[in-house]
Amino acid sequence: MKCGKLPNDVLEDIVISSIKKKNKDIFVGPKVGEDCSIVDFDNEVLVLTTDPVTAAQNDAGKIGIHICCNDIASAGVSPLGVLVTILAPPSSTIDDIKRIMNEINETCEELNIDVLGGHTEVTDAVNRIVLSITAIGKSRGKRYVTTGGAKTGDDVIITGNVAAEGTAIIAKDYYEKLKVKINEEILLKAQNLIKDISVVKAGLIAGEFGVNAMHDATEGGVLGAIWEVAQSSGKGVYVYEDKIAIKEETKIICDTLNLDPLRLISSGCMIITCKNGEELIKRLNEHKIEACIAGKITDEEKIILSKGEEKELSPPDSDEIYRVNI
């Protein structure tokens, strides 16, 4: 099988279809594209998510905390804390564990969340350090947003920098090999994009504004995330590809490595659907969050990508980051 997330059709057939709901307190359970589970807790709901970090060799602690807290924020809810599991191969050192914990603690401090517990183990079952992180949040008044809530006629909004996470990972993990092909200043700018992978603020603003769907763009990039929003919602979407802004450093790295930036892992981008998209963008801009309208939700269950010519958008495949070969 290919590296990366299971294809959505396999995930649905083999994993999700085998899971049976047993408790009425589960408002939102496992579904293709859904970022979080939602559990009823009397006057509030508990929001939970979990993710591994496997593609990054550097900044894994920072990336792991952000991607899980981004999931919580995609429900329009503030993250409260995380549980962290660290699996380290025998070749790891105490300094490796210390570095990752420093990254985790610093990022939790930035987001004002707690490390609630976890597990740390040395095992020959992995050949490099693997993190598995679970994040939780809660919403008073049972207010939350799902991936599958898009409505016909909604504007599709993308916040943040497309492929920021993938660009930063590649620029850092492959720096020595890339610097013979790409200007070092460009590579350093690309590495700095790792500072822009949180969408917590954007998610909370959008949740307060009142939106129909939210989904943070991770593996599969922004096009994969848009596909998942439409699929989860039973809708189609018309995507304005030429309106999706891409940073110059991302373009250069992707062109050099023959990668598609729109399908490169993109923590730092939130996909949002709502009425009055321009009003939400104004609200986001007031908080110095970049955003653009990149599409429109349709009744027809088809995703159309338009840039000069129209073509149907395929489901997300293995992320472009797994195609890097230098």
TrEMBL record:
It holds the Pfam family AIRS. Residues 152-304 form the PurM-like C-terminal domain. It comes from the Bacteria. CDD domains: PurM-like1 (cd06061). Residues 33-138 form the PurM-like N-terminal domain. Gene3D superfamilies: PurM-like C-terminal domain, PurM-like, N-terminal domain. One of its GO terms (biological process) is protein maturation. Transmembrane segments: none annotated. Signal peptide: none annotated. Belongs to the HypE family. This is Hydrogenase maturation factor. It comes from Caloramator quimbayensis. The lineage of its organism: Bacteria, Bacillati, Bacillota, Clostridia, Eubacteriales.
